[in-house]
């Protein structure tokens, strides 16, 4: 029900290769392949994959594609070649699975110990965390364990009843991803997704004494109620959302197409303003956006354009008192700023500045209320809360606790709320709940959680000087009781793509490493979003190597300052972070001893040379277009992890990949592993060093799971 800048910024990155619980209802079964959570994070606001990405269908694997002009001689010959390739793929897959089964037996005792420790920390630090509550009028809705519950807002006795159950409704293999309640609370719309796929299905329930399934719509990504009985939704196909439909739940039901996006680089989603005056159709590429308005008082009228897309200008809108409040990158500097314009004159020439961010300040999130606007900001590694009062035209800035590295804004469906609730966390600090009161004008911590305080962990913020003199932030955690830090193992984290920040939220396994003497370092390299839009721009396309230079400078500074040393250093990355991690293995393998990669994107050039893949066109704004630009092709080839493998002494590498990954095809990972093993063995056979060092190149292929976040149980096992 609420819009936040965080979900909007995620929305601009929907095509990412990134990384991220008694009534019997009428049952309608959809897919046999939908698979479930047991306990899953619910996304109440616009949020792909929780992190964050749009669903799509499973792509066929390919070892090669036909380039333009290539002749395919006959149907029979084509079928034979595909069959041969499929057999090759199956043979390699079986070989890797056999190899993993053999290797994993060695680590049974270790994995048992680690699993028990992580479970212990989970039970200690996260037992009292409640599911997000969504208040609508006098009622409160929340989800737990695959059920949606309803209770009264003033309910002190804990009375509630189930209005939807995944299992009882025939969707036993799915988890709840998103919930929307109609304004009069007669209907509930919820989306269900499998852990093995990014496809989602929207189920509409008619609420009452005995809730029943009113409709089931497959392949839906985002959806919003325009009125009590009019629902707008976007459809998804091959990881793309380009069509918007409207469907009614009146006596004469009908569905019609409202909007179609023609540009393959753009992704469409929906949002309803906080005051429910407008429903917005948001069409975003990586660098450009366009918004259309649906007046919720007249939901059958055609959408009205706010501002035609302008290359390089991102914007999104909220509404208050007949004015649009526009979060945009328009103007100089090209960072996010808050502007406004009359509803009657929404063109860019009428946008007036309300608030501009300071240099190198990152806008993490923004929440609109009837008389206030709250901005969550990050500057020099510290989090701040800026409260804009529309009445007094004042801005109050509040520095949040120094240990905090990330936050999660709680849902505020009613824009008239007088309090803003959110949680602060870090990789080694469990979430702690805070509230800002507009009436009291102060920030208070909600002590009811009784979460134990982490007292034995020290947080340090550093700046490393990169090759071009740019200062790159590093966040370091270590045990305060640790002595001789240069002898302690170090785990370095990196991402550096799509303007997305490193994940700095709490993970039990990170706290476990701290307790066992590890040092954790988070390198906020260019290409990510930690220092704003410019930080991302300086690390994408023809600047991608800057991210690699940043990473090298960070690791070298850590070693120089006595945080571990190369033989005790491991590097970890997920998804597109695999580009920089894989490039580091090729360029400076002597700096690290081991690498851990999850669903890594390691074959950039081959992927970007295949425009038929669903994400290739969209991602040209991040990586460039090697098909149209020879310089771009040479540049990508200069850092692409797969193309730069050579016989040398590599660190050991552990990779987790997913059979059903729709964003990073398994074939690219298989190719990478095969080539890396061969290069490592070639080097060993040539050098015959006394140590006989041959790195372990291990690939664990998960049959279940996907590129998006998995359930707690699956994450624990992994």
TrEMBL record:
GO terms for molecular function: serine-type endopeptidase activity. Residues 505-691 form the Peptidase S9 prolyl oligopeptidase catalytic domain. Keywords: Cytoplasm, Hydrolase, Protease, Serine protease. GO terms for biological process: proteolysis. GO terms for cellular component: cytoskeleton; cytosol; Golgi apparatus. It is found in: Cytoplasm, Cytosol. The keyword Hydrolase applies. Residues 95-442 form the Peptidase S9A N-terminal domain. It comes from the Eukaryota. Its EC number is 3.4.21.-. Signal peptide: none annotated. Pfam families: Peptidase_S9 (PF00326), Peptidase_S9_N (PF02897). Gene3D superfamilies: alpha/beta hydrolase, Prolyl oligopeptidase, N-terminal domain. PANTHER family: PROLYL ENDOPEPTIDASE-LIKE, PROTEASE FAMILY S9A OLIGOPEPTIDASE. Belongs to the peptidase S9A family. Serine peptidase whose precise substrate specificity remains unclear. Does not cleave peptides after a arginine or lysine residue. Regulates trans-Golgi network morphology and sorting by regulating the membrane binding of the AP-1 complex. May play a role in the regulation of synaptic vesicle exocytosis. This is Prolyl endopeptidase. It comes from Penelope pileata. The gene is Prepl.
């Amino acid at each position: 029900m609420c819009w936040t800048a965080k979900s909007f910024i995620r929305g601009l990155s929907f095509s990412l290769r990134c990384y991220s619980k008694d009534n019997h209802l009428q049952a309608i079964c959809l897919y046999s392949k939908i698979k479930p959570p047991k306990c899953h994070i619910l996304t109440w606001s616009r949020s792909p994959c929780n992190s964050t990405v749009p669903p799509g269908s499973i792509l066929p694997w390919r070892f090669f594609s036909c380039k333009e002009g290539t002749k395919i001689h006959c149907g029979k010959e084509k079928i034979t070649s595909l069959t041969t390739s499929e057999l090759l793929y199956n043979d390699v897959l079986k070989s890797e699975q056999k190899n993993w089964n053999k290797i994993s037996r060695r680590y049974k005792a270790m994995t048992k110990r680690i699993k028990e420790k992580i479970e212990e920390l989970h039970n200690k630090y996260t037992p009292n965390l409640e599911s997000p509550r969504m208040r609508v009028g006098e009622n409160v809705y929340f989800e737990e364990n695959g059920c949606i519950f309803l209770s009264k807002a003033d309910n002190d006795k804990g009375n509630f009843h189930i209005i939807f159950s995944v299992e009882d409704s025939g969707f036993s293999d799915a988890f709840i991803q998103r919930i929307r309640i109609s304004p009069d609370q007669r209907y509930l719309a919820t989306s269900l997704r499998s852990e093995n796929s990014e496809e989602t299905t929207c189920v509409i329930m008619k609420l009452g004494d005995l809730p029943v399934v009113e409709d089931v719509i497959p392949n839906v990504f985002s959806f919003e109620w325009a009125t009590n009985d009019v629902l707008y939704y976007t459809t998804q196909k091959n990881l793309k959302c380009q069509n918007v439909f409207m469907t009614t739940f009146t006596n004469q039901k009908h569905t019609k197409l409202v909007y179609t996006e023609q540009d393959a680089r753009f992704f469409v989603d929906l949002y309803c303003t906080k005051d429910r005056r407008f429903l917005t159709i948001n069409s975003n590429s990586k660098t450009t956006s366009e918004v259309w308005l649906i007046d919720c008082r007249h939901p059958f009228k055609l959408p009205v354009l706010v501002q035609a897309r302008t290359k390089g200008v991102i914007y999104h809108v909220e509404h208050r008192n007949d004015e649009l409040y526009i979060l945009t990158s328009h103007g100089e500097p090209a960072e996010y700023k808050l502007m406004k314009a009359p509803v009657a004159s929404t063109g860019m020439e009428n946008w007036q500045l309300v608030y501009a961010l300071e240099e190198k300040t990152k806008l993490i999130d923004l929440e609109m209320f009837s008389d206030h606007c709250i901005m969550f900001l990050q500057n020099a590694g510290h989090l701040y809360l800026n409260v804009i009062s529309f009445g007094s035209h004042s801005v109050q800035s509040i520095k949040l606790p120094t240990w905090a590295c990330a936050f999660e804004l709680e849902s505020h469906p009613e824009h008239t709320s007088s309090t803003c609730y959110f949680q602060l966390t870090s990789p080694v600090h469990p979430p702690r709940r805070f509230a800002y009161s507009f009436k009291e004008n102060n920030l208070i911590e909600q002590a009811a959680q009784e979460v134990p305080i982490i007292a034995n962990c020290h947080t340090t913020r550093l700046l490393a000087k990169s090759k071009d003199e740019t200062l790159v932030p590093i966040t370091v955690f270590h045990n305060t009781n640790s002595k001789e830090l240069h002898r302690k193992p170090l785990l370095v984290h990196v991402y550096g793509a799509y303007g997305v920040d490193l994940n700095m939220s709490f993970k039990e396994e990170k706290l476990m490493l701290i307790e066992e003497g590890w040092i954790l370092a988070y390198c906020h390299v260019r290409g990510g979003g930690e220092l704003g839009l410019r930080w991302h721009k300086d690390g994408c396309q023809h600047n991608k190597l800057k991210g690699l230079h940043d990473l090298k400078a960070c690791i070298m500074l850590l070693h120089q300052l006595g945080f571990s040393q190369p033989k005790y250093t491991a590097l970890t990355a997920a998804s597109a972070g695999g580009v920089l991690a894989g490039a580091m293995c090729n360029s400076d393998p002597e700096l690290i001893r081991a690498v851990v990669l999850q669903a890594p994107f390691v074959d950039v050039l081959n992927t970007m040379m295949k425009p038929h893949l669903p994400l290739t066109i969209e991602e040209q704004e991040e990586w460039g277009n090697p098909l149209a630009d020879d310089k771009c092709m040479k540049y990508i080839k200069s850092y692409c992890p797969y193309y730069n493998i050579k016989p040398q002494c590599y660190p050991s590498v552990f990779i987790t990949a997913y059979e059903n990954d729709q964003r990073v095809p398994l074939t690219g990972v298989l190719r990478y592993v095969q080539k890396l093993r061969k290069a490592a063995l070639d080097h060993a056979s040539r050098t015959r060093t006394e140590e006989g060092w041959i790195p372990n190149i291990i690939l664990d292929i998960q049959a279940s799971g996907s590129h998006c976040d998995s359930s707690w149980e699956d994450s624990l096992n992994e």
